[in-house]
Hints:
5-stranded antiparallel beta sheet, 4 helices, 8 strands, 27% helix
Amino acid sequence: MIRQELDTDRVERYIEAPPGALYDVIADVTRMPELSPEVKSCAWVRGTTGPTVGARFRAWNKIPGRPAWRNSPVVTVADRDREFAFSRTELIGGTLVWRYVFTPEGSGTRVTESYEVTKPIPLIGWLGIGGIYGLKDRRSDLRRGMSATLERLAMLIEQPTTAG
Length: 164
């Protein structure tokens, strides 16, 4: 089977931190390589220096043993303490909207990371995903990546700091 089922998915995790602190890390896309197992670099482009609606950034993604690929997402939601989202369109990769929602819960925050395919990946894109990149179950790959991202976010933000 060449085409894979990919439409929407989400993962959530409780993190002992205020929403704003979590938003600040996620919305600083230059830090995404610290969190995501597939993102190798991110940089704001076109004079943008931070998360505002309409801001663009360039991302390089990489899977071990496979070629890197570039994409140029645009920020669609930048609502500190609540939500950060961006849309990424690739010529043969369709359009995916990635979203992070921050919901206060107790003394911390429930973080939900999700994606939604808003323009399906064409057949030629699936040929690349399955052939060149060897990804036979992209939905599971993305789910593992989202879980890893939130795990790394929790480890980064919850680690004790040393007062100096």
